Amino acid sequence: MLQKAQSARDEFHSLLFFLIHHTFILQEQSTWWPYLNLLPTIFNQKNAHPLWFNTDQLDFLAGSDLRNRILNYQKKVSQTYASLLNDPDVVRALSPVFTFDHYMWAHSILDARSIWWDGKRHLVPLLDFVNCEASKDIHSVHESSSDTTGKYVETKARKNVLAGEQVFEDYGQPNHIYFLYHGFILDNNLHDCALIDDLSISSDGQVYSVGEKSRRRLHVNGFNNLNPSFCIKSGASSELDNLANFLRIKRNIPGDNIGITDDICQEVVDVIKLRLRRYIVDNYTDEEI
């Protein structure tokens, strides 16, 4: 089964199947049990990870594009599990422990605790217990890299740590990523930004009235799909420029890769105002917003 997942280049599920097998089938007989026994339980994850959030809990995110992203995340995981139930190799190898709760647990563990190097995810005992802490330096992010032999991996802290102190890392991600995959956010996160995630060009949008021309424009402007997301932050104009470039295509306005100029400025302002209004209860005017 692992070979099948690997041959399909599905490294995520290779690791997920391995995790389920060792945690729920081998258990104490697994070489990795001392580590696996320290991982958060299903109960822990159900009470902390957004993958399990119900609609009442998600309503606290009303107004945020993150709410729909979490719903899509939950839907995708559920659909993948349903598809895997039709795979006889998976059912044969993991039955009867291949339950929805076990799959959700393993998925959330990998999403929250994977360590990346050489473009691949790994579970690394103890290293994944290092908690996240916001750094005062935006470039102060941990790194993991393998040596020339490929047998060893080194992770370097970005600052000196005294004996007896807790070791922290700056994961280097915006808060919507932390919340989506880990269930927490950080104050004073230098990597944080405002997520804009619902500006897709639908089948009834203007882009289809000009067809292939607009698809070429999407490619020319660096977009590989009809619903890109944008991460807007203070002092960084590049994402605002990307947003402006996309809005030109969405509104069928001429001009490629020119960023914010007078022709699109009001469109960008309207997008920002709409998001601010989602969070504002009182009746503020556009000028006050």
> Shape from CA axes?
globular
Oligomer: single chain
Report the count of strand segments. 8
Number of domains: 3
Number of helices: 13
Order of helices and strands: HHHHHHHHEEEEEEHEHHEHH
**Major β-sheet annotation:** 2 strands, antiparallel
Could you tell me the mean pLDDT?
Answer: 88
Q: Given the helix and strand composition, which structural class is it?
A: mainly alpha
- β content, as a range? 5-15%
Approximately how much helix is present in the residues?
40-55%
Radius of gyration: 22 Å
Low-pLDDT residue spans:
none
- Termini Cα gap: 55 Å
Organism: Proboscia inermis
GO molecular function: protein-lysine N-methyltransferase activity
InterPro entries: SET_dom_sf, SETD3_SETD6_MTase
Protein name: SET domain-containing protein
Short summary:
InterPro entries: SET_dom_sf (IPR046341), SETD3_SETD6_MTase (IPR050600). With 289 residues, the protein is mainly alpha-helical. Helix content is 44%, strand content 8%.
Task: Please characterize this protein's 3D structure.
The chain has helices at residues 2-7, 11-26, 33-36, 42-46, 55-58, 65-84, 88-94, 100-113, 175-181, 207-210, 212-220, 238-250, 262-279, and strands at 115-117, 120-122, 131-132, 143-146, 153-156, 168-169, 194-196, 230-232. It is mainly alpha-helical and 289 residues long. It folds into 3 domains: 2-116, no CATH class; 130-188, no CATH class; 194-279, no CATH class. The chain has a two-stranded antiparallel sheet with strand order 1-2. The termini are far apart. It comes from Proboscia inermis.
